[in-house]
Structure formats: C-alpha cells, structure tokens
C-alpha cells in the first residue's frame, strides 16, 4: 500500500514538474527577450528607416521592417479571408457531403502542417514563371498560401459546432440556406472567426521562411505592390548575424518588438472573443 | 376538406422504419395533439409536415402530405413558401443570435413582407404574450431571456411570418409550471385563427388543450379522434394501455 | 412571387460560389504539389533517385547533388527534439487533464497559446543567447571544445518549440476520453497513477502517438530558428556536438543565388519536395488517426 502511494506521489510530482518546466521555459523566453531588448530600444528604432551605414552601427531604425511586416501580413490576411470564409462555409454539411468534407479537412490539416519554407519555394517558382521579382505581391502570395489552410480549418471548426437545432430555426421559418448562414452561422461563429483571423495574423507576422525569397528585403518602404519589402523577422535574422555589437543589440530590440506584437494579438484576441459573445446563444 | 391530409406516409432512416404508413386528417381551426411514448415518431411526423425532415440526408420519405389539397412533396411545391405557411416550434427554444426585435422581424424581412415595422413586432409579441415583459429591452440579445420567455419569443417569431399552421414539438417541456400556463393560454387564444398541431408527452396537457388527439406507437398511427371520445372510450388495446399508464 | 424567385436565385449563386471556391482551394493545393514535382523533374530524370537521396556527396559545382547529409541532419534534430519534448509535454498534458480543474486549464491556455505562437526567429535568438553557450560549456565538460553550434543545440531548441504544440494536441486527446472511463478504475480504489496507466494511457495511446508524430513533423520542417543554431555544415554529423545542415536550412540559405550553377535550382526544389513528402507522410498518418478518433 505504501509502495502504491509513493508511486502515485512520484507520478504526481513529475507531472507537475513537467508543467512547471514548460511554464518556466515560457518565462525564460519572455525575460531573455525583454531584458536584452529593452535597453537597446530607442524611439528612433521604431520610427526611423535605416540610414546609410545602419548595418555598420550608424543611426536609423527598423520602421521599414515593422511596416513591411504589417503590409505583408494584413495583405495576406485579407486575401485569405476572402477565400477561407466561403471555403469554410462550403465545408459545412449544409453544402457538402460529409465524406467529401471529411476528406477535405484531412487534406487541409496536412497542408496546415506543411513547412512554410516549402510554400516560400513554391511561391518563388510561380513568381519566376510569371516574371515577378521578389516583392510585396510575392510575399503576400506566399504568406497567403501559409495562412489559407490554417484559416479555413479554424473557421470550419467554430462554424461546425453551431448546434443543429439553431440551424433549423431560420430554415423552419422558410429561410434559404444562405439566409440561414447569414442569420445564424456567421453571427454565432463570429467570435471564433475573429480568433481564427487573429491566429492567422499572428502566424503571418512571425513567419520568416515564406517571405525569405518572395518578399525580398529593402531599407525603403514599398511604393507599390511590385516593390520589394522588408519584414521584422528577417530584420532580426539579418541583424543577429552581424559581428557588430550595436547591430546585435538592435536585433534584440527588434525581436522584442516582434514578440510584443504577438503578445498583443493574443491578448486582443482573448478580449474580442469575450466581447463579441453578446448575441451568442448559450 | 381537411387542412392537412397525410396519405400513406412512410419515413425510413437507413434500415429503421420510423413512420409506418401513417394516414390522418388534420382539421382546420383547432388544436390537434399528437401523443405517444418516447421514440414513437412524434417529432418525425411533425417535421415531415413542413419538410424540415429534408435536412436529414438519410431520411427517405414516401407518401403524400396534402396541404389544402396539394402535395407538399410534389413537384410543384415550393419548400420556402411551404415553411412560411407551416411554422415549426422546436422542443427547446433556440433564439436567433440577434436582438429580441430582430428575432421577430427576421421572418417578415426575408420573405419580403410589406410590414416589418416596430408596430408589427409589438403586435406579434403581444399575440405571444411576451410584450409586457420585453417592451423596454427590444434591442437586448434574445439569448438573455429566460427559457419560458424564449419559447414565447419563438412563438412570436413563428406567428410573424403569417403562417396558417403552427407545429409545436413539446413546446412546454423545457418550461417551469408558470410559463407552461402562459404558453398554453396563448395556444388556446390562437386556435381560432390557426391550425395548431402539438406534440406532447403529458396526457393532462392533451386533455386540457386538445380538440383532436392522435396516438402513435412505434411508428404507427394507432388511433385518432375527437378528444372527448379518445379519452373517454379508446378503441385500441394499446391506447387503453397508454392512457392507463401501462406503457409510456 | 418575384421576391421568392430572387431569393432562390441568390441562394443558388451563393451556393455555387461557395462550392467553387472550396474546389478552387483544393485544385490550388494539388497545383502546388504539381509545381514542386515539375521543378524537381530535371533532377530526378538526370540522376538515379538512390544517388540523390542516399549519397552524401554535395558538390553542386561538380554536379554532385547527394541529399543524404541534409536528410540525416533533419532527422537528427527532429529526433533529439522529440526525445526531449515528448515526455515533458505528455506529462504536463496528463497533469492538466487528470489533476487540474477547469479554471487552471483555462488560465494556462493563454501562455501555452502564446508560447506556440512565438515567432521562430525569436526562438532562434533565445537559442543563440542561451542554448549555444550552454551547449558549448557542456561540450567542454565532455572533453570536446566546440562553439555550441551543433545538432544538439538545434534539437534542444526545436524541443522547446514543439512542446506547447504536443501539449495542446495531446491534451485535446486526453480530454476527449469520457470521465466514466476513469471513474470505473477510481471506483475500484485505483490510485491516480494506476488509473492513468491502466485506463487513460491504454485508451488514448493512439491519439497521443499521433500528437507526438505531429510534433516530429513540425520539428522536421522548422527553418529559421534551427538554421540559427545548427551550424550549417554539409556533412553527416557523427556526434551530438557536431554541426549539421538540415533540409530547410539548405533551401533557405541557397535559394537566392541559384542561377549560376546548372541544375542547382532543381536540386533545391527536389530538397523542398523531399521535405514536403516526409512531413506530409507523417502528418497525413497522424491526422488521419486524430480525425478517426474525433469521429467516434
Ligand atoms: N436522424 C435519425 N437517424 C436515425 N434514426 C432516427 C433519426 N432521428 C430519429 N430517429 C429514430 O426515429 C424514431 C422516432 O424518433 P422521434 O424523434 O420522432 O421520436 P419522438 O416520438 O419524438 O420521441 P420523443 O418523445 O423522445 O421526442 C426513434 O427511434 C429515433 O431513434
Ligand atoms: Mg421528440
């Protein structure tokens, strides 16, 4: 009996220890990034473009990369929403046979797990074929490929859990399928759809591999969709590779900005999820 | 002519025959109660009357349901206008995820009815006996209402599309005794203008409300008739057993 | 009547467009695979596949394109990651499903989601600052003097990255197990450990394996973070302290300047194809299992 209890206690403490370890890793990452990044943070880093000699330790900032990342990811989010929302609705049993839907879900889940470097390579191949240089357009295209499966599947999951009886309510009044979708599915799933969009946005902001050769990198802001564009993850990546202390410091600060954006998105998504449940049933 | 006439209706789900050759006439302007033990096919019969059963992919429906003489499963029948004519209230009320007012005006709006005004909303909320309780918060979410209020909102929503028939599936089963009284009272007030078909588990409710009773047993329509004779002198053995509480 | 016709018409149009877009997305997905195949075709037709996959000779300027060093490196970091990450994540998931109450579970959702969403370049940066020096010191303790840029560092970093991922997937699997299953054992007087061992693990082992396999697939394809700490030397590593050059890093490092050497671009697309196929097979198998479980 004592033996059994001891085994149980041992098991309990290893479980708890593992959870504590993961949370500790999480804190270490936050602490390292913020403690290294904060001392190097300057207003100029956020608001200025890199000046000549920036990568040799001269003045300037990473505004090009911050804005570039926002352009890239918001563009890709927009493209993805336009395709993902209809596709997610079409996956519901109101529109598709369950077997086809199940098959499509499986395919999309596999695509979700496909490494973004692969999407970057494919995006690049298509751009070469079409004669497009590394540009904002190319980056948005590659990033949309990364986001699309993720967005379709997470929207699909939140629309799928709308109860059957709720779908029947407007149909029993004589509504068409589309009127039902608008009155019930979209309204009821709205908080979840919003979360899916923000999830994709966070993924887009942090993704470096897909934009590495599709978006290029530049010290300027893009003037058009055809211009190359910088991105924050790549700015971190390039600066950390520098042998100069000052430039490395800025990599830390840039990483802090990047992490901060991700934190904000996560927290905002939690808040919005709560706020928009006003009309939600049950 | 009966308002609704069901002719040789068979419903099959996979290998399972849910309704077996159901025949009956539902007269105009009265309350018809469908009673029977759990799982005997009451909900299925009710849903077949406004083709909500169509939503179930593996349900196979054979036979005829004549509404004013024309088959609702026939070629020329239009399912949207049918459902406008024949309203359905579910067992548990599911408000639409919008405000109280929008819940009522949703139907008239999609059907393009001329009146979608505030006055129309008030009229139907009054008809459902809910107006006094919600008149100050028409813009608040319907989800915040109590279950009893939600059920009356469902009634108002159904009435607002100006149906001829109201199908109600155990409309009081989720309610507290006081709400039950209110809803039953509303049904009694409405029966002169509508044909009301009501599924109920509670025999006493059928006695209180029904003019005409249909008894189902494992997919068959066993007996039907005017309420008085049905309760006073049931003809079938199984009906007698059910009324005396031997099967339930 | 015209209102009705118009509504029906609109509904038809919408239905067609929704279905069209879904089918379009599927066609696009197939197209992506097609492009990879097309682009790596010159390579596959010019060299025997065995030479490409199993040879470690990577000398593009001499026309040698053996990918095995890269494949081995990728497998190496992913396996090290799995060894470190899976016990910790599974135990933490067990704690959350078997011991924690719902409030704690909900409270921890935010940090776990954030950890899963930390950009990989930030992980890479932390790896450079924390893991590289630690591994360097460790190597000195083991009697080898290295910089710390090694397959071990890559593995540890990947382990950290896939921990929250395996944790949430396996937690989902564990929570889908009905409470009655556990109650039967607990009612007999079983301890928590006995319940977990004889009931919980037995009934969810397939799902947990699938979660771990998905973690492996994720680790296999991770790019930026790994290439920041793994050293990027195109040789088959012989110890955990040796540097290595995983497939994603190969693609990321060489894609820009690929035009000068003949066949080089095709070799890189072949690398991407190999990457996609390996990751695809593992995640297809794991997802099929998870979908199957979810449907019961
Ligand atoms: N979608 C379905 N697929 C297969 N069988 C079904 C389906 N829906 C209902 N059934 C079966 O049809 C039979 C009748 O169901 P129905 O819901 O009509 O019963 P009911 O009389 O309304 O019961 P209750 O009083 O419990 O609501 C039941 O045996 C049920 O299991
Ligand atoms: Mg029922």
Name the descriptors.
A: 282 residues; MetI-like fold; 2 domains; 10 helices; 72% helix; 0% strand; C: 296 residues; mainly alpha; 11 helices; flat; binds adenosine-5'-triphosphate; binds magnesium ion
Verbal overview:
The complex is a heterotrimer of chains A (282), B (248) and C (296). Chain A contains 10 helices and no strands. Chain A is mostly helical and 282 residues long. The mean pLDDT of chain A is 92. In chain B, strand 1 and strand 2 form a beta hairpin. In chain B, 35% of the residues lie in helices and 26% in strands. The longest helix of chain B is centred in the middle third of the chain and has 14 residues, at 147-160. By secondary structure, chain C is mostly helical. Helix content of chain C is 78%, strand content 1%. Chain C has a two-stranded antiparallel ribbon with strand order 1-2. In chain C, a hairpin with a 4-residue loop joins strand 1 and strand 2 (64-65). The mean pLDDT of chain C is 91. The chains are: A mainly alpha (282), B alpha/beta (248), C mainly alpha (296). At the A-C interface, helix 1, helix 3, helix 4, helix 5 and helix 6 of A face helix 1, helix 3, helix 4, helix 5 and helix 6 of C. The complex binds adenosine-5'-triphosphate and magnesium ion. The site of magnesium ion has 3 residues of chain B, from helix 1.
Describe this structure in a few short sentences:
The complex is a heterotrimer of chains A (282), B (248) and C (296). Chain A is mostly helical and 282 residues long. Helices cover 72% and strands 0% of the residues of chain A.
């Amino acid at each position: 009996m004592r033996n059994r209890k001891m085994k149980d206690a041992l098991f309990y403490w290893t479980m708890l220890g593992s959870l504590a370890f993961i949370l500790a890793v999480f804190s270490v990452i936050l602490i390292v990034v913020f403690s290294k990044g904060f001392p190097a943070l300057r207003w100029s880093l956020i608001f200025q473009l890199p000046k000549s000699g920036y990568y040799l330790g001269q003045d300037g900032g990473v505004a090009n990369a911050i804005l570039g990342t926002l352009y890239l990811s918001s563009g890709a989010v927009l493209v993805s929403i336009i395709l993902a929302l209809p596709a997610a609705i079409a996956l519901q049993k109101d529109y598709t046979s369950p077997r086809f839907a199940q098959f499509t879900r499986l395919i999309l889940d596999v695509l979700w797990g496909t490494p973004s470097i692969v999407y970057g390579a494919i995006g690049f191949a298509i751009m070469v074929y079409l004669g497009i240089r590394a540009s904002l357009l190319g980056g948005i295209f590659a990033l949309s490929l990364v986001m699309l499966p993720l967005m379709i599947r997470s929207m699909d999951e939140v629309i799928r859990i709308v109860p059957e009886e709720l779908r029947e309510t407007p149909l029993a009044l004589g509504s068409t399928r589309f009127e039902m979708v608008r009155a019930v599915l979209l309204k009821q799933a709205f908080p979840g759809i919003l979360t899916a969009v923000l999830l994709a946005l966070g993924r887009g902001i942090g993704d470096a591999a897909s934009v590495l050769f599709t978006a290029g990198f530049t010290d300027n802001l893009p003037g058009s969709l055809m211009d190359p564009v910088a991105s924050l993850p790549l700015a971190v990546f390039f600066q950390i590779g520098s042998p100069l202390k000052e430039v490395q410091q800025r990599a830390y600060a840039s990483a802090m900005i990047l992490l901060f954006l991700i934190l904000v998105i996560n927290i905002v998504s939690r808040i919005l999820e709560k706020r928009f449940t006003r009309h939600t049933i049950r | 002519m009966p308002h609704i006439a069901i002719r040789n209706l068979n419903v099959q789900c996979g290998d399972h025959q849910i309704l077996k050759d159901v025949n009956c006439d539902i007269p105009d302007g009265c309350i018809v109660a469908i009673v029977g033990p759990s799982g005997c096919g009451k909900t299925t019969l009710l849903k077949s009357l406004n083709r909500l059963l169509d939503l179930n992919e593996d349900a196979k429906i054979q036979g005829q349901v004549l509404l004013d003489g024309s088959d609702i499963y026939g070629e020329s029948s239009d399912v949207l206008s049918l459902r406008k004519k024949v309203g359905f209230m579910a067992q548990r009320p599911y408000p639409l995820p919008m405000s109280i007012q929008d819940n009522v005006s949703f139907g008239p709006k999609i059907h393009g009815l001329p009146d979608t005004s505030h006055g129309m909303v008030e009229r139907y909320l009054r008809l459902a006996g809910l107006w006094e309780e919600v008149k100050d918060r028409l813009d608040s979410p319907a989800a915040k209402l109590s279950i009893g209020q939600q059920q009356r909102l469902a009634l108002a929503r159904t009435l607002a599309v100006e149906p001829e028939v109201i199908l109600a599936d155990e409309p009081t089963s989720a309610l507290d005794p006081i709400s039950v009284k209110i809803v039953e009272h509303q049904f009694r007030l409405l029966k002169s203008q509508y044909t009301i078909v009501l599924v109920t588990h509670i025999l006493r409710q059928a006695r209180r409300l029904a003019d005409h009773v249909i008894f189902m047993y494992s997919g068959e329509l066993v007996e039907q008739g005017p309420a008085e004779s049905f309760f006073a002198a049931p003809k079938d053995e199984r009906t007698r057993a059910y009324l005396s509480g031997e099967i339930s | 009547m015209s209102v009705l016709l118009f509504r029906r018409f609109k509904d038809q149009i919408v239905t067609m467009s929704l279905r069209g877009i879904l089918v379009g997305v599927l066609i696009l997905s197939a197209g992506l695979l097609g492009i990879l195949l097309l682009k790596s075709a010159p390579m596959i037709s010019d060299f025997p596949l065995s030479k490409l996959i199993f040879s470690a000779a990577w000398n593009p300027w001499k026309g040698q394109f053996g990918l095995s060093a890269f494949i081995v490196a990728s497998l190496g970091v992913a396996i090290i990651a799995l060894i470190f990450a899976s016990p910790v994540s599974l135990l933490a998931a067990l704690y959350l499903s078997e011991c924690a109450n719902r409030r704690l579970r909900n409270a921890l959702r935010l940090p776990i989601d954030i950890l899963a969403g930390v950009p990989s370049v930030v992980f890479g940066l932390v790896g450079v600052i924390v893991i590289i020096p630690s591994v360097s010191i460790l190597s000195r303790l083991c009697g080898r003097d290295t910089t710390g840029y090694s397959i071990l560092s890559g593995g540890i970093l990947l382990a950290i990255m896939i921990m929250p991922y395996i944790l949430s997937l396996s937690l989902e699997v564990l929570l889908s197990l009905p409470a009655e299953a556990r109650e039967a054992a607990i009612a007999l007087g079983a301890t928590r450990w006995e319940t977990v061992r004889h009931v919980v693990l037995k009934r969810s082992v397939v799902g947990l394996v699938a979660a771990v396999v998905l973690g492996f697939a994720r680790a296999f394809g991770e790019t930026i973070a790994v290439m920041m700490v793994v050293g990027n030397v195109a040789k088959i590593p012989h110890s955990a302290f040796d540097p290595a050059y995983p497939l994603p890093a190969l693609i990321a490092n060489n894609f820009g300047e690929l035009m000068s050497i003949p066949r080089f671009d095709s070799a890189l697309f072949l690398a991407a194809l190999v990457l996609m196929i390996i990751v695809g097979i593992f995640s297809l198998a794991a997802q099929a299992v998870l979908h199957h479980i979810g449907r019961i």
